[in-house]
Design brief:
The protein is an alpha+beta fold and 124 residues long. The protein is built from three helices and six strands; from the N terminus they run E-E-E-H-E-H-E-H-E. Strands 1, 2, 3, 4, 5 and 6 form a six-stranded mixed beta sheet that branches. The chain starts with a strand and ends in a 12-residue tail after the last strand.
């Protein structure tokens, strides 16, 4: 049985979560890259998660009339330790017979880099 392991987390600009400082920690959106791979292996693949607050969602709805929410994680305020803990909790609960099966489960929370590649699901 293969289980998922969170191997790293940063913004998509490769800034550590501890070093990223949103202008307003209670009204922000940031794209997070979670590097996830099979537990015990060196390989990892990227899953992108949009982390935002209800205030940011409300502001966007007011401006545009809607927000599409696939791969969103909505938190009350920017707290890097809490965000990483949540991502780890969601990611590391999944297992399967193959890495592709596991990665498809992890893709429920984050946009998997191989999600829409026909015939190519995983390099790990």
């Amino acid at each position: 049985m293969i289980t998922a392991q969170l191997k790293g987390v940063s913004t998509i600009d490769m800034i550590r979560l501890e070093d990223y400082k949103p202008e307003n920690p209670t009204c922000f959106r940031v794209f997070i890259r979670a590097m996830v791979g099979p537990r015990g292996s060196e390989g990892a693949e990227a899953f992108t998660i949009t982390v935002c607050t209800p205030a940011w969602v409300e502001k966007e709805v007011e401006k545009d009339g809607f927000v599409v929410g696939r791969h969103y994680l909505v938190v009350r305020a920017y707290d890097p330790g809490f965000i990483e803990k949540l991502i780890r909790k969601f990611v590391e609960r999944w297992s399967g017979e193959s890495w592709s099966e596991v990665a498809e489960k992890v893709a429920r929370i984050g946009d998997w880099e191989f999600e829409d590649y026909p015939g190519l699901k995983s390099s790990t």
